[in-house]
Structure formats: structure tokens, C-alpha cells
Amino acid sequence: MALDRRDLLRGGVGIGAAAAFGAGTPAVADSEVVQGLKQPPRMAAAYSGTPIEHFRQARRLLIDNDNLLGPRHAIAAVREHIEKIKSLRQDTKGADRHDLMELQTQYAEFASWLYQDMGDFGSAEFWLDRAFQWSHTVGDGDLTSYVMARKAQLAGEMRDLVDVVDLAEAAQRMARPRSRLAAVARTYESYGHALRGESSDSERAIDDVRNSLDRVSSDATPWGVWLNEQYLDVHRAQGLEVLGKHAQAAEVFTRAIEALPAGYHRDRGVYLARAAVAHAGAGSPEEAAAVGLQALAVARDTGSGRIMRELVNLDKTLVPWQRQPEVSAFRENFDAVLAHES
């Protein structure tokens, strides 16, 4: 049965996820790999250093690749590496076995992030569940707290009004008191309150995190090191947008985008797309269309479903101004990208 690309996008599926339709669920795909193929043995001696360092370095490179090129270029490698790590664990003992399990957990969380950016929330939840389960095997409290915070973030992106605040509060209870991970979870709680229309609670949570930044900056955990003023601004702007404070949201998004470091190509596109939606909501169609065109260029580079989902909203919001030249240019280019991806 033919699937209409616009219908997929309007249903919340990104370019990358739409391109992967028919690939099967993560559970089915993994089962087929294990049962249908004879896997060659994985030998630690095959690696120039240690297998653990090899896969750590690979994960760092894949993260950089994701920032620049988007999720669809990284997901196959991440899934393959998870299977390789599982295979290596069969013949490994002691500290190395523990470290491989930790890496497997980290790869699962990264797989969830990639699927989340593609707009495939079912697969994102699947891999976060695996990461949460495996993190308990590792016994790393910070890692488990981080995965729980990510569950809250994913619930927020899915606009789950029931679970997002509860998950964020659970992550804070699991985190070390006054730690960076507690602040990360409080950030996601802020957006959850905004989704519920709880403006004061949302602002209070953001202010609490902002006041803690100096204290948590020295936290030794490797998780959440990106928590800074710009990250908070982005989440505050998201909250303002869903609360209907469009002009204020656009202003805060713009400030955060200007301060974003080089190399965050895909994330810049996400923030541009959300800023464009805020401009449209504030009644500034020319600015919305101009910023939307910038976001569209990043979407074309990366296949980010998060960007495309925002641009679908922008496309619909701009309909009343469709005869304006700037708006017409955006909508024509948007249609061209959809046609190309189809």
C-alpha cells in the first residue's frame, strides 16, 4: 500500500523514519539478525587497542557524525555495534565484562536518541527501556538517573501530559542531591509543567536550574555536560511557546541560536524551526518564513524528523499569509523537499 509522505510527516514521522518504513521493529530486527545470520566470532585480539576503547572511540565519532549529518547515517552502525558488544561479552569476565555492559547501555541510549530525532518514538522508547534495564546491571547510579531523565525528555517531546513531570521527578529522586543530573531532570520537568499550562511552575523550575549552574558545573559525572545557559534558554523558549507566549519564545530562541557553538548543525536546525513557529504564532510571517528556510536547509542535510515536524506545523500556520512572497518561497521549497524525499 502506498504511503503519502505528507500524511506520514503530519502524523509525527520524520524524513529518516519514513525512509525506513518496512524495516521492522527493533525487537524483530534484532531477532532476525541473531536467528537468520551466522555471526563470526568476536575476538579481543582483533583490535589494535582494547575492544572497549575501540567502541568508546566509535561512539564519540558517531555522536559527532549525528551532530553534523543527522541520525539516518548513524543508526545502522549503532545497532551493529550493540550486537558486536553483546558478542564480545560472551567470552569476557571481570572488569572488562562490566565495562562492555556499560558501553552497551550507552549505545542503547544513543540509539534511542537517534530514533527520537528521526521521529520514530516507538523505537526511541524501546531503546530507552533497554538502556534503563541494562543500566541497573551496570550498577552506575548516574547512568540510571540520566536514562530516567531522558525518559522524561522523550515524554515531553511526545507531549505526554500524564508522564512527563512524573518521570522528571522520579529522575530527580534517583539523582544525587544537588547534582547536575538532578538539574537536568528539573529542566525537563519545567517543560512538562508548560505542557500542562502551569506557567508559574515552569518558570520556577527553570529559575531553580539557572541558579544551580555554577554549583553543578564542577560535578564529575560525564552526563549532562551540555547543561548551560543556552540549553536552558532553548527549554524555556519551548515552554513559552506551548504556553502561547509566542513573541517572547521567538526572542529567547533567537538569543540561544546566536550563542550556540559551532558544530551543532542539526540542533541549530531544530531551534531555527521552533523559532520560526514562534515567529508565525506572534504574527510575523516574513520572519517566520525566512527562519523556516534556514531550518529547511538543515533538515535537508540531516533528515531530522524533529525539524520536519516543526516545519509541518509552520507550513500549516503560514497558510493565511500564503500569498506573501516570503511565505510563498518557503512553502514552495518545503514542497520541493517533500517531493525529493519521496
Low-confidence segments, given as residue ranges, are 1-41
The percentage of residues in β strands lies in: under 5%
Roughly how much helix do the residues carry, as a percent range?
over 70%
What shape does the CA trace take? globular
Instruction: Return the string of H and E elements.
Output: HHHHHHHHHHHHHHHHH
Biggest sheet statistics: none
Q: Return the average pLDDT rounded to an integer.
A: 88
Strand and helix map with partners:
Layout: H1 5-10, H2 15-19, H3 26-36, H4 51-69, H5 75-89, H6 94-118, H7 121-138, H8 141-157, H9 164-174, H10 180-195, H11 199-216, H12 229-242, H13 246-259, H14 265-281, H15 285-302, H16 305-317, H17 325-341
Helix pairs in contact: 4-5, 4-6, 5-6, 6-7, 7-8, 8-9, 8-10, 9-10, 10-11, 10-12, 11-12, 12-13, 13-14, 14-15, 14-16, 15-16, 15-17
Summarize the structure.
By secondary structure, this protein is mainly alpha-helical.
Structural summary, described in words:
Helices cover 74% and strands 0% of the residues. It is an all-alpha fold and 342 residues long. Among the domains are: 17-139, no CATH class; 247-342, no CATH class. Helix 14 (265-281) packs parallel to helix 16 (305-317). The longest helix is centred in the first third of the chain and has 25 residues, at 94-118. The two termini are 15 Å apart. Mean pLDDT is 88; it is low at 1-41.
